[in-house]
Amino acid sequence: MHVNKSRKSAIVLALAVLLVVSAVSAYAYVTSSQETESKSSDNSTTKPTSTTPASGNSAKDNPKTNEDTYSRAKPDPKVDNIELSATQDDSNTVTIVAKLYGASDGTCDVAVSNGAKKVSKTAEVIYQPAYSTCAGFSVEKDELGPGTWNIKLVVSSGSNTYSETASVEVK
Which of 7, 66, 134, 166 registers the highest number of CB atoms within 10 A of its CB? Predict the structure, then answer.
């Protein structure tokens, strides 16, 4: 009878070890799958080819590096690496906002024109995890007057230069 009890204990112990090994293996598999999916989704979102590096070569001529990938706050991968917008508030101030994807440092130069009148400003790039932004631009309506304001933003980050244009109707 003592042998039978010993054999039952050995079977129970073997089953417990097998259960623990299975649980650890399943956890490792799930964790590995999630990391692989995360890496593949990071690599599938790359800067659009419309950006032009400072050297003047097209992005197609430059090999992809880790600096060429980034995550976006928005799921649309076709948005340019700069989202530029301008709004006029009630106090006759036009605020220019830029969301920069792929730039973590550098400078932002904005030129705003309305006919022959022109205003230029410079600000630093402010890094944020989802996207970076320019430190901020505000232009008073009195500086350029009412009409269609044309805005050109040039961002210099590392050895790359990116640009985007927009326009806003100022009343």
Answer: 134
